[in-house]
Backbone:
């Protein structure tokens, strides 16, 4: 079993890669509706990795893990609703 330091290093690299991916999509201005959905999913994955490993909630009771996970889900859902709602004037 790999030690915790090695696991955290791997997760940190995954977080950096996902962040660079999101940055490059924005920088290249290559964003459409389906890529926004992909970005929101990767943002949720990044947030869940932070909740589990860097906040140390991976091995606690489910009710304590659900609080930040539900918060993250609500925030990302509200961003999705705001993005996908048609703008009328």
Residues:
């Amino acid at each position: 079993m790999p030690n915790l330091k090695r696991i955290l290093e791997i997760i940190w690299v995954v977080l950096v890669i996902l962040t660079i991916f999101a940055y490059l999509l924005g920088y290249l201005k290559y964003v459409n509706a389906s890529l926004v959905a992909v970005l929101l999913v990767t943002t949720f994955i990044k947030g869940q990795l932070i909740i589990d490993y860097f906040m140390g909630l991976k091995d606690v009771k489910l009710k304590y893990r659900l609080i930040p996970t539900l918060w993250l889900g609500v925030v990302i859902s509200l961003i999705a609703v705001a993005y996908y709602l048609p703008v009328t004037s």
